[in-house]
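Hi support team,

I'm filing this because I wasn't sure whether my run with adenosine-5'-diphosphate finished correctly. The job status page said complete, but I'd like someone to confirm that the output block is well-formed before I use it downstream. Pasting the exact inputs I used:
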Amino acid sequence: MNKNAVCVVGSINMDITVSTSKMPKQGETVLGEKYRTYPGGKGANQAVAAARLGSDVTMIGAVGDDVFGKHLLTHLQQEGIQMQGVEVLGGVSTGIANIIMMNQDNRIIVAPGANQHVTPEMIEKKKHIIQNSDIVLLQQEIPMRTIQYVIELAYESGVKVVLNPAPFQPLSKSLLEKVTYITPNEIEAEAINITQQNVRIQRKTIITLGKSGVQFVNNNGEKKLVPAFLVPVKDTTGAGDTFNGAFVSQIAKGASLHHAISYANAAAALSVTKIGAQTGMPSEVEVEEFLN
Ligand code: ADP
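And here is everything the job wrote out:
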């Protein structure tokens, strides 16, 4: 068993962006400006963040048998991610996010496609990957019953689980109790109603607070704030994904909770200095240089 092995069970998308100076009204067509495609999906993004930081990452997920699917498989392989847990599904589209960008007014439609076919039945065939990992990282862009299945499987197998509850969907208390760490942002933490949860759940919750940093509960039960780094901000897309990938890569390497959070805080700060989600994710060398 490789004790540094990270398994990410999650979404793989192609982000399709069009920027425009005029948002179309109902029934209207406007001429946009730039069109671009970027590899995305919270699962894939977090896998890339962990792999760039030196983790041995295996992804479990699905793409469709289309051009985007082929492109994303090659791309993630080039990032050093092991893809034997990713299925190519016939007759299904690869997940996409359709993003219209107009200054600060972004409008996004996600068509989950193949991500919706990541079922407990699919995971069952690949459960050895989870059982042979040191830690599993999950987000909520695949069906909730799959998330429940993975948390229970990891819990029974003694494998740590980090749940990034994004985008928010309700979770039972009993499931939250089986997770090693939960990493909501401020809005998700409010939706989970963290302050009303029991002490055990509060102690495993790490809340990312954007430019205010990260809040967690230390071993003595005290609330601590790790302030964010002051950096020139270009694009905060993917900051949370970088944080999660980096945090898990550190926990897999045996780092303490406080060290893993500080390191992930630095990696996420570096990511906001560049445009794009995956484009801005730093390497191990870049984080070390930044911290020294
Ligand atoms: P999400 O992108 O999921 O909403 P946050 O906005 O909370 O997540 O950001 C995640 C982490 O990224 C923060 O906890 C922090 O470490 C880092 N981060 C985000 N925005 C900034 C910023 N403006 N300056 C420095 N670090 C940032």
